[in-house]
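General statements about sequence and structure are easier to judge against a single worked case. Part of our work consisted of pairing the sequence of a single chain with a tokenised description of its backbone. The amino acid sequence and the backbone structure tokens for this protein are reproduced below.

***
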Amino acid sequence: MSASAHEMKSYYAGRAAYYDDVYNKPERQADIAFLREFLPERLAGRHVLEVACGTGYWSQHIAAQAASYLATDGVAEPLEFAKQRPHVDPQRCMIADVYALPASLGSFDGAFAGLWFSHVAAECTSRDD
């Protein structure tokens, strides 16, 4: 693991208790209310993989309607919060590297990656073609 990847994991491990503060901001309430309805409806009945689930804020809403749900994160600390959410099966929460998910996870016909895209390293998003 690179030094920057290690630093990022340490940062998110230390911030796990504060992750959900973003969902309490008054200016975000309308969007969050919309997404709480929209996402579960779109993923209802699907076999869903969530990458970078964090504390499971979205997991609890989507898992309630999904046929199956696997919540993954690269850091253990936020996963402990996710495991305590309603509708989230602690046995279906795991530490995983989103860039190297094992084939043994099976197949999925739905996926969710909430705030993850803002954390993708620039070198992972550039294209040579």
